[in-house]
Structure formats: structure tokens, C-alpha cells
Amino acid sequence: MDGSSLTPIDVGDLTLELDNCSLQEQLFHAIRNKIIRLLWPLGGKLPSTRKLAGELSISRNTVIAAYEQLVAEGYLESRPGAGFFVSVDLPEYYLNTNEVGPKNKPTPITASPPQLLNQPFSPGIPDLAQFPIEKWQRFLQRHSGRVSLLGSQDVQGSLALRTALADYLASSRSVSCTPQRIIITSGAQQALYIASSVILQRNDSLLMEQPGYAQMSKVLSLRDVNVKPLMVKERDGFDVQEVLSSKAKALYITPSNQYPMGTTLNTEQRLTLIRWAVEGKRWIIEDDYDSEFQFAHRPYTSLQGLASDIGGSERVIYVGSFSKVMFNGLRLGYLVVPESLVEPCLAVKDATGGDTPAHTQEALADFIREGDLLRHIRKMRRLYQEKHQLTCQSVERYFGDCVEVVSQAAGLHVTLKWRNSVNEDDFVQRAKNKGLVLRALNYYEDSAVKQGITRDWSGIVLGFGNVAKEKIEPNIAELAKIFGSLLD
């Protein structure tokens, strides 16, 4: 049996879009499109009919009928007692179509601080207690005796990991790439440094969300880049028209869950930005932050995937990491770049950091390929959704009308807003004295970039990822007490 047959498929951004068809026909075409574009691995295992029905909020009978139609036409195989799988031998007619899909589909590889930083409500920290550490240790142990991994390694990263990652990104985010276009990095921050170093020269202009990812601001300051603010409004996001009127050479965005304001870009907005980049020969750096944890709506297709569909993939650089879906200490990220940028990016990586720990990469490749990453993400998606709901309910209960949650239902944090006398820095300090770590919204604002633009409200970012469910309500009650003591 093909090794890829063990790979479970995450439905990811699968959507039903043909309004003039029945739900069964819409689902049939959506799945068939994934298969014939080779975004789902041959032999990959589909979700059960009950699970997919729940994910798409449609009846199970509709899913069963669509699956059976796909089996009848040769796109799926039904294995009694095991489920439904993508056919290894697809219908010959569609193998000869001109549908766009990843080139050179890879052959599956056989497996051969301080404590205060992680205190309750620390932003950006996943639930560390829920990670399957014993299983992870077994993967590490599996490769610990491989002498070949003790020497120097390919600066681009493990081929096994890049192959597993290419399949995972295609399946879950419709990212169009091959292992040859993926570069493994020491976290997302190194990936951002490499990308910006290759596409930007000194004094080039780059549009960046404000407030935005503070670590990216640090990276850009090292490059002497002329950063232009793209102001993000609560709930609305940034004005796409501002981008269209800009002559900047590049755009850096977190479109799936803007950090820290928690807004998202829809498909139409993403396509508009891609056209802006293509027509002006500009660059988009897509930091697909928190795309795995959307609770309010189905995840949108990655901007990189959309760009590939309309011939714009040469203008998009895709960045991701495993810090939120696994654990921060892993320090593994990745870049997906156009073929023309592979060698320049590798030259920067080689000069600034060299290769990445080999045993960890090989363990992660197995963790992805054997389905454990996807199983962990599914488990954590349910848990974080519960934590998000509990956090919002507790904020409403204990803060009342004094504070509101302005971020979408996604990710591992909520952003709180208020208009009264409480200073956000004072609030953060008082909470810290009680062992609760918040982050003032001004932390995410680059004073050198904002150019005199000020807010008429205050806010903080509150991370719920690493707080035990039973601790959320009492800790928020404590925060509300601190907040009340600061009111004039």
C-alpha cells in the first residue's frame, strides 16, 4: 500500500460555492476539485461522513451521497470498516486536463524562562499541558541513533519534512508548492528576516498593519526599510483601497487572524491584493497566523493558494510556524517562496543561521506524515473554541459594559477595548503583580511608523491558550477586580 494512504486529510478550506446546484452536487464538485488539482494526497483518508457533515453543517446523508458518487466515478475508494480514501489511480480523463495543481508532486518519503513568560493570559502561548509529549519523545528517540544526522545538513531543511509539509499545506490551506520551494527556518521570525532581506533593499517601502506583529517591526528596523502604516480598525480591518493607492514595494499581512486586532480578509479582498501585487510587480508576505484555529467561520483559502490559481504565485511569499499548533520551544518555521527566490533565500539563511536541528526535523516529518499533527490540531481546535467562549462569557460577566471584546472568534487570544480612565500600562503592571500576564495594545504599535496617529480608546491582548479551563473564570474575575480599582 502507498505510504500516503495513511495520511488523514484535513478538509481545511473546503467550501460549497455553486449556488445553482444542490448541496450534494456542491460537495461533489468541491471534493473532486481538490482531488484533480492534487491538493489532497493520493490514497489519503477522508474524514468520516459524520465528521465532515459536522464541519460543514450539512446533513450526513448529503455527505454519504456525495462520497458514493465520487466512488462511482473513480475519485474515491470505499474500504469497508476503514472509510473513504482518495483513489491512487484517478480517472484517466482528468489526469489529462489543464487544471492548475502543484507541479512535480513529490513521492511520499518512507520513515528511515522563564516561567513568568508562560503565566496565565500570556499571549501567543498554546496549551502546553495538552501536547502529546510522550508520543513526541518517541518520534525523537526514533531518530536519535541515526549517525547520518550528526553531521552537517542541507541548509534548506530535511527533505522528509519539506515533503510532509508540502502535502499538509496543500490539503489544509490549498498552498501550491513542492518540497523544492519550501525552506525550513528557526521559527517564523527568521523566515520573515530572510524574506524581507531578499525582496527589499535599504529605504524600500513596505506596508505593514498597525497595530501589528511587533517582531516583524524589529526585523524591519534592522533592514532600514521605510515602513508605511496600514491602520487596522477593530472588526473592520484595514482599508484595502489604501493598499491600491500605494506605491510600496511590498505588503506584510496576517490575513487569517490579524495580530493583534483579530480581523480577517475575505476572498474578494485577497484577490484584490494579489492583483495589486501582480500588476505593480510588488511582493506580498503572507504570515498565515492562526489559520488552523477559526471558530466563527470556515477558513478562507490561503492568499498564496488563490494567487496560484490566477497566475500570481510569483509575487507571494508564504510564512508559517509550528509554535501555536505544537509548542513555542520547538522553534521551527518555514517559508514557501517562488522558485526564483529559493537560492537567494538559502544564501541569506546560510549566512545568518545555517541549518536547523536535524533530529527534530525528522521527528516532525514523522509527526506530520503519520497523522499526529492533524489529530492534535483537531483536538486543540475544539478545546480553544471552548476556551474562547468561556473567556468571552467571563469578560461579559465580570467587566460588564466597561470592556468589550473586539477580536473575532479565532486563535489563542482576545483583544479587549475600553473608553475610560484606566491606563492600559497600569492595568498590565497591576495584573503582573498578581501573576497574570497581559499585553498592552501599545506594545504592537510602532511609534516610528504611526506618524502621529493616536487612538481614542485603550486596550489589551489577553491570551487564553495556556490557561486551564477551570482557571479562566476566576482569573478574569481577578482581572476585573484590578480593573475596577484603577477606575477614577
> Beta-strand percentage?
5-15%
- Please name the CATH topology of the largest domain: Aspartate Aminotransferase, domain 2
The rounded distance between the terminal residues' Cα atoms is 70 Å
Pattern of helices and strands: HHHEEHHHEHEHEHEHEHEEHHHEEHEHEH
CATH superfamily of the largest domain: Type I PLP-dependent aspartate aminotransferase-like (Major domain)
The coarse overall form would be globular
**Can you tell me the CATH architecture of the largest domain?**
3-Layer(aba) Sandwich
Widest sheet: strand ordering: 3-9-8-7-6-4-5
Average pLDDT confidence is: 88
Please tally the β strands and state the result.
13
Main sheet attributes: strand count, strand direction, barrel closure: 7 strands, mixed
Q: Rg, please?
A: 23 Å
The residue fraction in helices comes out at 40-55%
Secondary structure tally, helices: 17
Poorly predicted ranges (pLDDT <50, ≥5 residues)? 1-5, 93-114
CATH class of the largest domain: Alpha Beta
Question: Any idea how many domains?
Answer: 3
